[in-house]
Design brief:
By secondary structure, this protein is mostly beta strands. Helix content is 5%, strand content 45%. A hairpin with a 7-residue loop joins strand 27 and strand 28. The longest helix has 8 residues. 49% of the residues are buried.
Length: 652
């Protein structure tokens, strides 16, 4: 890379007067405050259900199942669902704050249709376009609760072919206190309406001034400062005229930081998207609408990674502000590509440390969506981690059955190769310590992603995939079936697992899915941070239908970590899981939990390590609960200074 071009060569061609007459663009209010950092606790429940997949469930008309049952103050922010053509199968019932009769009820398609006619609501945008033929149903009306909420589905049909749903919610948030969503029947259809909701007064339009910079030539291998602005201010619109699909990398630095907060190829940052966040106008022009606040200085660079020179022109719409508020975050974007997936280790979308909130991602070249989906661990190195896990790829993007189209402002899907994006304007994921997002795919793919989030620091605090400071290599085995009676009686969960001694002796045992089995000994899996994801380890030997048979009556897994400790001591560890698990250290059980948790539950445990060699063995199961078929755990060790460390670091 050549030296940076001199800053003084940048020329401001025009500085317009504040723009007072511009008409507001669609979704301007949606993105207006997305840089204000949130502080609630995000949650997500996800299910794939059918008579065949969940033994003993969906037995006939009137069968009732609970999809969400939580205590606290907050709101449900988004429900996505789909079903086969013989559905819908259920009436949905919402019990708010201890109700004995549901205040909201109806088939999900009826509720989604009713949302179109709610005249005033706390939703950040109008309902997304609906096409019943595509069978993707999205409800974005917030459903507030002050003490609790329970969501049940009651079966309306004799059988259930296959049914999918995801419920996104937040707790520890009283912003809708006193507001209730209710339903009623009127003229044979379901109506939804709010009680206690007072729409806020319209805000004045955002006033901006436009800065246009001189055209710049960028030679191959050269990085050039294209434009800069002084603050405090917010870049409300960034308009780039350049060959967007050329191998160009855009980099943004705020306030003299040592690194770049935005670092991504222009073709992937903007994609081919036309929505609330981005607008790809043509091959040589793209616009970013996500706000970019800064205190003192904004710098925009382009780096030419191609073999021919290019030219670029930048235009910024700037909102002048009196201060950079303490609750604001800087826009960050980070690009990553996996050279070749192996099917069992997910592609890392983001690992960052600090405080902020996850907005969402763009994803490219991910193949068939049954390869996997989203796995997010919020604050994994804390005493209150949260885990959010979806189902299949298209479902995260709010579509179904590989559908594509516009679900603005939240999502757009072109194709799995050409790109999809999902921005959680309705419910960003706040984090206080760290955020880890990964995406599972089938093997032999080259997925690419751009993560978008806001953070309270202008620095690049990302940790690359495979960084030795966070990774651990585990020996693993699985999965094998859990006997049906064991899931009912909570004993005998691990009887089908081989012994550690037999695996160490080189013996092999049958592992895999229901219709795909293979002989295996010890397998390997790498954790990034404290979370070990074992959901797809059967893909060491099972190549197809890797998601299809993950559920059912349950499966058991084995993980082993051998490590060396410098001294003997009682170490405090923080363990999070959602299914039955047991921890054995040097041949002694130090923790057992035979029951499922309602979500990600966390416990402090003591690990009596000895000087020299140690062996930690984890046996765990997975069967249907609130996180579909995720298998794994989150484990970190606290050192004498109270900081998280890896087991591999105890020898130092």
């Amino acid at each position: 890379m050549k030296n940076l071009a001199p800053v003084l060569s940048i020329v401001i061609l025009a500085l317009a007067a504040p723009d007072q007459g511009r008409a507001a663009r669609p979704f301007e209010e949606v993105v207006r405050d997305v840089h204000v950092l949130r502080n609630y606790r995000a949650g997500k429940n996800s299910y794939v259900e059918s008579t065949k997949r969940h033994a003993g469930w969906w037995t006939g008309r009137g069968f009732r199942a609970t999809l969400l049952d939580i205590k606290g103050t907050g709101s449900v922010r988004h429900i996505w669902s789909t079903w086969m053509k013989d559905g819908p199968y259920f009436e949905w019932q919402f019990f708010v704050d201890g109700e004995t009769e549901p205040s909201i009820r109806g088939r999900f398609d009826e509720l989604v249709a009713a949302a179109d006619h709610v005249k005033s609501s706390p939703a950040i945008a109008s309902p997304v376009p609906r096409d019943p033929a595509k069978r993707d149903h999205n409800l974005y009306l917030p459903i507030p609760f002050e003490k609790s909420i329970r969501i049940d589905v009651v079966q309306l049909t004799d059988s259930v072919d296959i049914f999918f749903t995801q419920i996104d919610y937040r707790t520890e948030d009283d912003s809708l206190k006193g507001v209730r969503l209710r339903s009623r029947q009127r003229e044979g259809r379901v109506e939804l309406y709010y009680e206690g909701w007072q729409p806020p007064a319209p805000r004045p339009p955002i006033r901006t001034e436009t800065i246009r910079f001189d055209r710049r030539r960028i030679a191959p291998g050269e990085r050039v400062l294209i434009g800069t602005a002084t603050g405090p201010a917010i870049v409300r619109r960034l308009d780039l005229n350049a060959p967007i699909s050329h191998p160009l990398r855009m980099l943004v630095r705020y306030d003299g930081a040592s690194g770049y907060a935005i670092n991504a190829p222009t073709a992937r940052y903007f994609g081919e998207f036309q929505g609330a966040s981005f607008e790809r106008i043509d091959e040589n022009r793209a616009v970013n609408y996500l706000p970019m606040p800064f205190r003192e200085k904004f710098e925009f660079y382009l780096e030419n990674e191609g073999s021919t020179p290019v030219e670029a022109v930048l235009s910024l719409d700037i909102e002048r502000v009196t201060e950079f508020r303490p609750d604001w975050g800087y826009l960050h974007a980070w690009y990553n590509r996996t050279a070749s997936t192996n099917g069992h280790s997910p592609h890392q979308v983001l690992y960052t440390r600090g405080r902020g909130h996850w907005l969402g991602m763009s994803l490219f070249k991910t193949g068939h969506d049954h390869g996997g989906g989203d796995f997010a661990i919020v604050d994994g190195e804390s005493e209150r981690p949260a885990f959010l896990h979806g189902i299949n790829g298209e479902d995260y993007f709010t579509f179904a059955f590989f559908g594509a189209g516009q679900h603005q402002p939240y999502a757009q899907a072109i194709t799995n190769d050409r790109g999809r994006y999902r921005h959680h304007f309705e419910n960003p994921y706040p984090f206080q310590h760290s955020f880890h997002m990964e995406w599972a795919t089938f093997a032999n793919l080259q997925p690419e992603s751009v993560a978008f989030w806001y953070q309270d620091s202008p620095e690049d605090l990302t940790v690359p995939a495979g960084d030795p400071s966070i990774t651990e290599l585990w020996e693993t085995f699985g999965f094998v079936p859990v006997p049906l009676e064991a899931t009912k009686q909570k004993r005998g969960l691990y009887v089908n697992l081989p012994s550690v001694a037999d695996l160490d002796a080189g013996k092999t045992f049958e592992a895999g899915n229901i219709k795909e089995r293979f002989p295996a000994g010890w397998l390997w899996e790498t954790s990034n941070g404290p979370g070990l994801n074992l959901t797809y380890i059967s893909r060491h030997g099972a190549e197809t239908n890797g998601e299809m048979y993950l559920g059912g009556n349950g499966h058991a897994y084995l993980a082993r970590k051998r490590f060396i400790a410098k001294k003997a001591e009682q170490l405090e560890a923080v363990l999070s899981h959602d299914d039955p698990i047991e921890i054995e250290l040097n041949g002694k059980i130090v923790y057992q939990e035979p029951s499922q948790c309602a979500g990600f539950c966390t416990h402090k445990i003591t690990l009596p390590v000895r000087a020299g060699e140690n062996e930690l063995v984890v046996r765990l199961t997975n069967y249907f609960n609130q996180t579909f078929v995720w298998a794994g755990f989150n484990l970190w060790i606290r050192n004498s200074a109270g900081q998280p460390v890896r087991l591999s670091d105890l020898h130092r």
